[in-house]
Amino acid sequence: MTATAHAPAAELAMTPDQREQFDRDGYLIIRGVLTPEEIAHYTSAMDRVYAEHAAAGKLGADGSLHKLSAVASCPELAGLMTHEKVFPLVWSSIGWNVHVYHSHLDVHPKIEVHKPPRFEWHQDGGRQNREIETDPRPQLSVKLAFFLTDLSETGRGNLQVVPGSHKTNWIQGPPRRDMEWPNPEGAIEVQVNAGDVVFFDRRIWHARSNNYSDFTRKVAFFGYTYRWIAIRDEKPASFEDLTPVQRQMCDLLDGRAVDPVEGGDHAWGHFPSEVPLYVQLKEGGHLDPTYPPLKP
């Protein structure tokens, strides 16, 4: 299985019902995205990375791995960035001038010793949430989480969310993060099967439950934002096998540096014909003049 296996499938673009639910709840669960073969392929790749870090003594104290830059760290995961069954949700919501600015692969085995309390509820974006003054804050980015483990029951390191909280700038928390403190009102543990994907607004308040089960939680996360927002990920060392759209996701486009009239593109989308995802959507007739991120 290669990184070129998937391309955007326009017929799977976000439906009106999905858009309504996403706007209301801040997340969607897409069931059965990955086939058993895909689950085995991506699990094997993540297991290899985990074993390498274990051998080098680079795991967390609890045996966990939180590895940034998913594709640079595990090239086999490149196929997930533009998976045909869920990538259309990304461009349906934030358009064609996007890239993967932040990604990570997570492996969390059973916690053998009870962990002390720590309040981990947060919105993605870091200092965006302090430095942008609007209420609610702008969406700015969305995320796909590919689950490779059966988390159909709670307490397995499940993603926890507060549905609808993506339009709330602040939630009640403890004076110190190391204090015992209840979960926010309305919080749930998202229950998914291996092969399911969760698509969520970066603003939704979320955390991870502690995994005291016998299951090892394995998930790959890809965060997408506009190309004019700085990328956080490291770039892959080799990209010959990436499709043009995957190269765009990894910020590997050449583009024109300088135009005598317009100046440089600077990832602002000034020259759409040089942005692979724009070209692909235009050829498929899926640009939408009524929706700003998809305007031709």
Architecture blueprint of SSEs:
Layout: H1 16-25, E1 27-30, H2 36-55, E2 65-68, H3 70-73, H4 78-81, H5 87-94, E3 98-108, H6 128-131, E4 141-147, E5 159-161, E6 188-189, E7 197-201, E8 206-208, E9 217-226, H7 244-249, H8 276-283
Antiparallel strand pairs: 1-7, 2-3, 3-9, 4-7, 4-9, 5-6, 5-8
What does this structure look like?
- It is a single chain.
- The protein has 296 residues and is an alpha+beta fold.
- The chain has one domain: q2cbj1_9rhob like domain (Jelly Rolls, Sandwich).
- It is built from 8 helices and 9 strands.
- The chain has helices spanning 16-25, 36-55, 70-73, 78-81, 87-94, 128-131, 244-249, 276-283, and strands at 27-30, 65-68, 98-108, 141-147, 159-161, 188-189, 197-201, 206-208, 217-226.
- The strands form 2 sheets. The chain has a 6-stranded antiparallel sheet with strand order 1-7-4-9-3-2.
- It starts with 15 loop residues before the first helix and ends in a 13-residue tail after the last helix.
What descriptive keywords fit this protein?
6-stranded antiparallel β-sheet; 296 residues; Jelly Rolls; 3-stranded antiparallel β-sheet; disordered N terminus; 17% strand
CATH level-4 homologous superfamily: q2cbj1_9rhob like domain
Give helix % range: 10-25%
Q: Using the coordinates shown, work out and report the CATH topology.
A: Jelly Rolls
* Overall shape: globular
Q: Helix and strand string, N-terminal first?
A: HEHEHHHEHEEEEEEHH
Provide mean pLDDT, rounded.
93
Number of domains: 1
Classify the secondary structure makeup into a structural class.
alpha+beta
Distance between the termini: 34 Å
Poorly predicted spans: 2-10
CATH class: Mainly Beta
Pfam families: PhyH (PF05721)
Protein name: Ectoine hydroxylase-related dioxygenase (Phytanoyl-CoA dioxygenase family)
Keywords: Dioxygenase, Oxidoreductase
InterPro entries: Phytyl_CoA_dOase-like
